[in-house]
């Protein structure tokens, strides 16, 4: 008997936060995609779904876009405006991720703040072109800093993650917060790696692959929710990038596979997952 008690005690100790969240059986998942619209966006959009009773159910997501993507020749512009149009018409949320995505600007925080303002001007023009003025109002309420996992979400304590890869400049996030933005970081990241050998083999300058398998990613997300390792309990913000799936359809297909496995594994844990844009966070 004492051996069993010891084993039970060890199992409890293994749980990372020491407690687990029940969440009333429901988890909210917020998929976010940064740095687009770019090659890959279209394939992301095509894979935001799951099947239920023989029907395809769309999954909403949030796209943090950069103004520099709206430069170039007419063909490039037309293509990117087409992707923006798809994001809008398919009900996704679009947020501000600065024009240049230049982390050097953190050296002079005023420059970075100005770059967010400049992105407002760029995107206002683009939204007007799409006849989506009301969406622009949502755009100026949702921001994410380039390369920094910082949070300024109404009612929650500010957070600037130590894991951030660039020196922290909390004044940028705080300034955006004072200007009416909610600044969103992320709780889990689906990383992308550049496979140099594959790039060479395919005659490309780079070749991105999602690092974690869909199954590993689904488990990471559910484990983080269960252990409460998220900014808000029972909700998780997942980050990845449009361009990680640009080199092959098999990479893009991992997104719908992830969504399928996430629902399946959640069910096996007695949970349900629902998908939302950050307008519902
Ligand atoms: Zn980014």
Question: What does it look like?
Answer:
It is globular and about 45 Å long. It has nine helices and 14 strands. It has 281 residues and is α/β, with parallel strands linked by helices. The termini are far apart. It has helices at 2-14, 41-46, 74-89, 109-129, 133-139, 170-178, 196-201, 214-227, 249-268, and strands spanning 26-36, 49-52, 55-58, 62-65, 93-96, 142-143, 150-151, 159-160, 182-183, 188-189, 192-194, 208-210, 235-241, 272-275. It has a single domain (21-280), classed as Alpha-Beta Barrel (TIM Barrel), CATH 3.20.20. The strands form five sheets. Strands 1, 4, 5, 10, 13 and 14 form a six-stranded parallel sheet that branches. A two-stranded antiparallel sheet has the order 2-3. 40% of the residues lie in helices and 19% in strands. 37% of the residues are buried. Helix 4 packs antiparallel against helix 5 (133-139), helix 4 (109-129) crosses helix 6 and helix 8 crosses helix 9 (249-268). Zinc ion is lined by residues 34-35, 97, 101, 146.
């Amino acid at each position: 008997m004492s051996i069993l008690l010891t084993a039970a005690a060890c199992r409890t100790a293994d749980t990372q936060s020491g407690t687990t969240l029940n969440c009333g059986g429901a988890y909210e998942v917020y998929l976010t995609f940064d740095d687009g619209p770019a090659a890959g966006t279209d394939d992301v959009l095509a894979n935001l779904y799951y099947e239920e009773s023989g029907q395809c159910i769309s999954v909403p997501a949030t796209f943090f876009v950069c103004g520099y993507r709206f430069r170039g020749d007419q063909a490039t512009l037309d293509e990117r405006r087409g992707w923006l149009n798809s994001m809008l018409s398919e009900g996704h949320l679009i947020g501000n991720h600065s024009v240049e995505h230049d982390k050097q600007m953190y050296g002079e925080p005023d420059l970075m703040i100005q770059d967010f303002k400049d992105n407002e001007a760029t995107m206002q023009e683009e939204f007007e072109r799409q006849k989506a003025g009301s969406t622009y109002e949502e755009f100026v309420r949702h921001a994410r800093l380039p390369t920094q996992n910082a949070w300024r979400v109404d009612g929650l304590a500010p957070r600037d993650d130590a894991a951030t890869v660039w020196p922290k400049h909390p004044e940028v996030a705080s300034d955006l917060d004072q200007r009416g933005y909610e600044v969103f970081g992320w709780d889990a990241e689906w990383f992308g790696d550049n496979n140099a050998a594959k790039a060479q083999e395919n005659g490309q300058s780079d070749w991105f692959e999602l690092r974690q398998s869909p199954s590993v990613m689904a488990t990471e997300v559910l484990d983080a929710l269960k252990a409460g390792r998220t900014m808000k309990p029972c909700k998780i913000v997942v980050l990845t990038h449009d361009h990680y799936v640009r080199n092959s359809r098999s990479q893009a297909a991992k997104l719908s596979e992830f969504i399928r496995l996430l629902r399946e594994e959640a069910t096996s844990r007695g949970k349900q997952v629902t998908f939302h844009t950050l307008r519902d966070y």
